[in-house]
User: Fold this.
Amino acid sequence: MDTSVLLNNIRALCKKNKISISRLESDLFYSPGLISRWSKNTPSLDRVLDIANYFGVSLDELVSHSTNHDTDNKRLILTLLNRAKTDEINWEILNFQNPPIPLADISSQSFFPFGECDCYYTTFKEGFFFLASTRIGGSLLLALYVLPNAYSQLELICENVPELKDLHECLSRRLGKRLNKIKTDNFINAFLSSSSTNGEASSHEKVTPLQSKIEAINF
Assistant:
């Protein structure tokens, strides 16, 4: 068993399910830090099976480099890419300042909690696919999300895999100029709104007249 692969898969499953490794250890009644120590010591099969059952995946999926789930994700991304190239599906820019009504509750923090992001989306039946991107320290981060319908919750499908970069490059070539125009308009509107607000505040301020330093003395 390659423990480095096992640990990477555990981290990925924790991230996908939005829990920490310490929470996983607590739920399984493991001692704190046990999973991290597996980088030096091979865990027992019982422990690995506990984690596989916890996440609802097979033992093979948990310990192997490539899983059926990964294969399905690659197939999904390639299908999205091919249909974008042939115009079978139409991708749009998600303007967080003026989103379509079904997506009004979605913000950039829905995809990347630590900052702003750009987002392309496309529809299928009643649901949506989202490709979100942001830059941290010069590195491009990409994530593919799905919203089955307007009453569901966003689901992270995968992030930072090579196939997502190809999809992002394709969409950026087609929509990059429009995206930049939207960001420019939002920036200008925010500036004008701020200036207007400051102007209104200053116009309502009470002006206190200066008092003369020399006061009349009444005898």
Summary: The CA atoms of residues 28 and 51 lie 8 Å apart. DSSP finds six helices and five strands in the chain. The longest strand covers residues 127-136.
